């Protein structure tokens, strides 16, 4: 850099013209600088867009992971509730089955008792029926014999005179 001369009088007039760039050079430098600024701007925009995408993807992955963890937690809670429900219902089912078995046993015992009572009464009735038939047959046989005996006695008394004379006396 060249030293600028300052006049002794104290007034400043600026650098000489040969040290200043011409307007075309200024325009080229301006355009080059503008191009560099535009490149930096576009590069910065691309970096910001890439950073935004990366952060969005990271947030999306975090959200998916959180959703998966939450879904797993909810599924675990649901499974736990299902297990508790199944356990309670299985307990009720076992009680119900036990009660049903007791009722079936009682029913079978009552049915067996009634069947036994029926068979005993039927056997008793059959025995009474047989006894009746035997007595009836016996009574009929006795009547028949008595009738035959009476008929034979009556016919034998008429045929023997001794029997009649004995009867008279």
Structural features:
0% strand
Provide a descriptive summary of the structure in words.
This protein has one domain. It has 169 residues and is mainly α. 86% of the residues lie in helices and 0% in strands. The longest helix is centred in the middle third of the chain and has 137 residues, at 23-159.
Secondary structure category: mainly alpha
Number of helices: 2
- N- to C-terminal distance: 203 Å
Strand/helix succession: HH
Q: Number of domains in the coordinates?
A: 1
Q: Stretches where pLDDT falls below 50 for ≥5 residues?
A: none
Return the average pLDDT rounded to an integer. 86
β-strand percent reads under 5%
Number of strands: 0
Largest sheet: none
């Amino acid at each position: 850099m060249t030293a600028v001369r300052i006049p002794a009088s104290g007034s400043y007039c600026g650098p000489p013209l040969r040290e200043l760039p011409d307007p075309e050079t200024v325009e080229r430098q301006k355009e080059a600088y503008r191009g560099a600024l535009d490149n930096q701007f576009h590069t910065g925009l691309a970096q910001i867009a890439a950073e935004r995408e990366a952060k969005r993807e990271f947030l999306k992955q975090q959200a998916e992971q959180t959703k998966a963890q939450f879904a797993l937690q909810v599924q675990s809670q649901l499974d736990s509730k299902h297990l508790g429900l199944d356990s309670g219902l299985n307990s009720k089912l076992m009680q119900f089955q036990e009660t049903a078995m007791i009722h079936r046993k009682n029913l079978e015992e009552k049915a067996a008792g009634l069947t036994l009572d029926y068979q005993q009464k039927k056997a008793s009735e059959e025995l009474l029926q047989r006894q009746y038939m035997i007595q009836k047959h016996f009574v009929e046989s006795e009547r028949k014999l008595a009738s035959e005996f009476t008929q034979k006695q009556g016919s034998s008394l008429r045929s023997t005179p001794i029997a009649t004379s004995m009867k008279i006396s």
